[in-house]
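Record Solute carrier family 25 member 38, 246 aa.
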Amino acid sequence: MELAAAHPALKAFMCGSLSGTCSTLLFQPLDLVKTRLQTLQNNAKPGAPKVGMFRVFIHVIRTENFFSLWKGVSPSFVRCIPGVGIYFSTFYSMKQHFFLNRAPNAGEAVLLGAGARTVAGICMLPFTVIKTRFESGFYNYASVPGALRSMYETEGVRSLFSGLTATLLRDAPFSGIYVMFYSQAKRALPQEVTSAPYAPLVNFSCGVVAGIMASLVTQPADVVKTHIQVSPSHWSTADAVRYIYK
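=>
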C-alpha cells in the first residue's frame, strides 16, 4: 500500500534499484571477464595468441576460485543499486516534464536516455572506477571504503573521477541508443502482440536487441574507459586511445 501511494519518481527509483541488484548478481562474472579481456593488452606479448572469453573464465577459476568471478560485486552493488535508481527516476522525471502528453520520437528518446544516464554516470563515477579496479585483478583492495581511502591518499581525488569523458562517451550514447531501439522496436510491433500474454517475452526480446545494438556502438569507448580507470598514471582519453592502437 505504501509503495502504491509513493511518488512515481520514487517508485521508479525503487524498481530500478531492485532490477540493478538482480542484474548485478546475475551478470557480474561476465562483467569481470569483459574487464580482464580489455586489460589483457597491458601484459600481452607481441604475437601472442588471442585469448577468448571462455579461456579467461577457466583461468580465473583455476588460478583463483569459482567465486572470484564475482570479484567486484561489492562496488557493483554500491554503484548499480542507487545508480540504476537514479537513472530511472531521472528518466521518469524528464519524460513527465518534457513529454507528458505524447511519446518521444526516436531522436527525443536518444536525448532522454542519454540525459538520464549522464546524471547517473557522474554521480556514481567513483564507484565505477573502484569496480573496474576490483575486476581487473591488478589491485588487492580489501573493501570499497578501503579502496576509496587508498586511492584518495595515494593518487588524490582526481583518481576517483578518472575516465569521466570516456565513461560519458560510453554511457550516454549507450542509454540513448538503447531507449531509441527499444521504444521503436515496441512501436513497430502490432498492438495485439505487445498486449498479449507474451508481452514480458516481447519486452525482453526488444531489450536484448536494443542492448546488442547499443553495445556494438559504444564498445570502443568502454575499452578506453577501462584502460584509463585501471591505470594509476591518470591518462587522458587521447593517451588511452593512442596506447590501445599503437
